[in-house]
Amino acid sequence: MSTANKTRMLVLGGYLGAGKTTLAVNLARYLKKKHNKFVSIIMNDQGNVLVDTEYSRNAGFNTNDITGGCFCTNFDKFILSARTLVSSHNPDVIIAEPIGTSTNVMSSVIAPMKLLHPDEFSISPFVVVVDCVRALSILSEKNQKNVDTVSIIPTHQIRDAEVIILTKTDLVSKDTISEIRVAIEKIISGIRIIETSSMDLRNIDDIVNIILSDEISTKTPSGEKNSGFVFEKAKLGWYSGTFNITPSENVDMYSLETELMKRLAMEYDCKSIVHVKVLIESPEAVAKMSLVQETMQVDDVYGSRYIKTPGRLILNARVISPPKRLKETITALINSVVSRYSLEFTKVEEECFTPKPESPTHFFFE
Description:
Layout: E1 7-14, H1 20-35, E2 39-45, H2 51-58, E3 63-67, H3 75-89, E4 93-96, H4 105-116, E5 121-123, E6 127-131, H5 132-139, H6 152-160, E7 163-167, H7 174-187, E8 192-195, H8 204-212, H9 227-234, E9 236-247, E10 251-252, H10 253-267, E11 273-282, E12 285-292, E13 295-303, E14 306-307, E15 311-320, H11 323-338, E16 343-353
């Protein structure tokens, strides 16, 4: 089968909170608007209900998700999901976003796709997203490591990459970006690095050009079995909750989400807050906010900032915390915060756990 008949696939890796989903949606919008290309998205998470999936769908893109573990442990489901998108929507491009704690994506996802499904997908160079706000605190050799430090997984993800995308560059100085480049160069020499920002979409054409090119992933996988991966993942409490909400009068979604984020930030040290996302949606309005360490931002607002009709609230939190404490903390603060607003609030589902070690379906490396 010729390259023209294959579906282009971009695998967008990177650590929790790096900005992968925002970048994926921005790329999808840009490809549609500027190049008339249709994009579908596959999300991935340990939990069952994903803020990012709903965010992507609300942005207007056909989106599937693989839950309950990494693409690598659900490889057949991942391929089936991609095939379903192709048969149902015939996208020009599929953007696949692995879980932020995924390791060995090259050897357990990209290499198996290339070897087992060469006639179906054209796999672009593997892109790993790096958050400029946190990069030096994770990668700098000067920083002391302790029981709450997470650095092995992000470092390995960079080592696995073929292209590095530096996000949130508008939030740091040029000197900081230069230091980040030096730190990355020490991990993987000669890697292609592109700087961008969701605020001004700087250099997005450079990323899009890779997607639209015939360039394919050529890196030889070097699978790494490291007990440190399991240790770092075991530090995280992984919370997902979905709640139905029925306002009795207009409720300010921005105010409600901001208060939830601020209250959670008060409960934990900022370095323990790896990534928290909250989404409120109703037929007439959607608002999504995120919190990474001490940085809180509005990711998107559709329609009014006020919810007037029944909808739902989805909260995903990845925090360095025992799951029991995390669940109790979030349950208490949600009940406390929501009681201040004029709405009925009903839990639909809730889970909190520590992710199990990954067992890849395939593991190809040299």
